[in-house]
Amino acid sequence: GGTMERAFALANHWHMNLVRKNTKIPYISHLMAVSALVLENGGSLDQASAGLLHDILEDTKCSEELLRATVGDTVTEIVKACTHEPSEDKTPEGWKKRKQHYLDHLLDPKRESRANLVALCDKVHNIECTVRDWHASGHDQSKMFVGFNAGWDIQLWWYNSLADAFDKLDVPADLRTRFRTAVTTVFGT
Length: 189
Description:
67% helix
């Protein structure tokens, strides 16, 4: 109901004019896709709202206070659990360190468990967009991840590590399979 509308308005406002890396695709499309995947896989409206907002603290100047005032505590806690630590270190090593921190956090038993489905839906959409890019590149590794802070080898490590982590979490099996299948499509076994 109301929370979804407020979540969409907030996401639309703060991500306005942003596009997906190396594309002309408005960033809001990713947020909508993640939210839809959450709902398609049995998530609640709070989880779907968090899907719309999962990048807002990481990628925009929206404050946690404004987020909390707009969508409440539950959605805010899920969003916080989905947020990667900020890092000034833009080197591949810095990127990997930040991702390792995310993986450790993902498997922390104290983590907000409702965030796990949202995180998986985010990563499913990312890897399925990567599959599309992989086919468009003619399966050319050198054309992949241009403009990203980490190249092929670290991306391979990241996506395989994510697949292993999601296999340890209570998230829908078919969605885990969908993620693993896409990872294998791009990176091989």
